[in-house]
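QA checklist item 7 of 12: single-chain prediction sanity check.
[x] sequence parsed
[x] length recorded as 407
[x] structure emitted
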Amino acid sequence: MIGTLTSNVRDQQPFVDIFSTPELESPWKQQYQSAQELFNRKEFREALQAIDQSIAIDSLPASQYFLEGKIFEALGQTRQAYQAYYKAKDYDGLRFRASEDLNRRIERMTEQDGVTTVPVKETFEAHSANGIPGSSLILEHLHPNLDGYKLMAKTFADAIVEKNYLGTATHKNLPDSLWENQIAITEIDREVASLRIRFLKSGWPFTDHAPPAMEEFDTNLNDILNSYAQQFWKNEITWEKMHVQAGQYYVRQKDWQKAELEYRALVQATPMNYAPYEFLSRLLIQQNKIDEAKELLLELIEINPTPHAYKVVGSIYLKRKKVAQAVSYLEKAVRWTPDDYQAQYHLAQGYTLLGRYEEAWRAIQVVLQLNEDYQKARELASFIKTAREKESLPGDQPPGSVLDPGQ
């Protein structure tokens, strides 16, 4: 598979103008400047006539075709604008962007057996204003932004499905939201991208000089998130540390939704690391998203089980009155951390509700050894003691909030 090539033709002026002879440069620049001034005054038809005159002086400089494209677009003549923008790109003296003859070669490769051409350029055009790719999908001269990369990936995926390269697709045309939610990108990642692009554009070939040293570059540090982005950009902290700091900042601001996004990004990017799962589960519970927290921790248990995950899942099942399931998870939690008196207390609750009073008694004794002032544990211990003596039925309920795992 090979994709056609796309680049920023609408919003990236040519880098270098080339002249037929050195003698033509000065009169061409004078005429081009006249056309530019007319365009700036929105005298578009007069500007177009001026561009025709500059082309008559020298047909090689690329900048005149770029300006011609802008004039045509302003006049609503999108087909002519399209042609002018692409001509400007192809005439650019600095060959950073692939010329259209390469796309024609790529398209001819489809004639060969076993070669599939993926219409990346055509798809970018279909998703761009007036069919002319620009900064809405491309960061600078040719690298796609996040939306551009998603579009490129989808274009290749559609071609793979269409050709059955991975077998017959069982589900086609699923909504993009199913996979877009899995992309671990947040506002601070976008800030880093913006910082890198601004730094890139501060030097050649976007300017006529080298970029400044990193420590001298104006990063516009107007808030704490910008400072985290700069620290990562300068390799002072890791990507994970940047997101942790951003998540902690949002927690301090009580912006739970943005904090949640930061920890979800960490979960997606570092699935073997248990810490972001546990942080995220606490945030979800704090927002009363109990079922989401449970599913998240069940996922963690499959990948990298922790006593916290077992305890919280068991406590949720206990609160949902799924006592047998609760006990199964809580037993695993206390096996790992026998000195966790809360997990031991929840386990004692579960044993009590199942009528397993001997096990409940042992668990509640551990709780009282760890925290003798725990009043709820004292109440539960009293009930268990009486139940053992009277051989109470499993349906008897102890006093207090035995079903509340938060107690």
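[x] summary fact logged: The beta strands are 2-3, 117-118.
[ ] second reviewer sign-off
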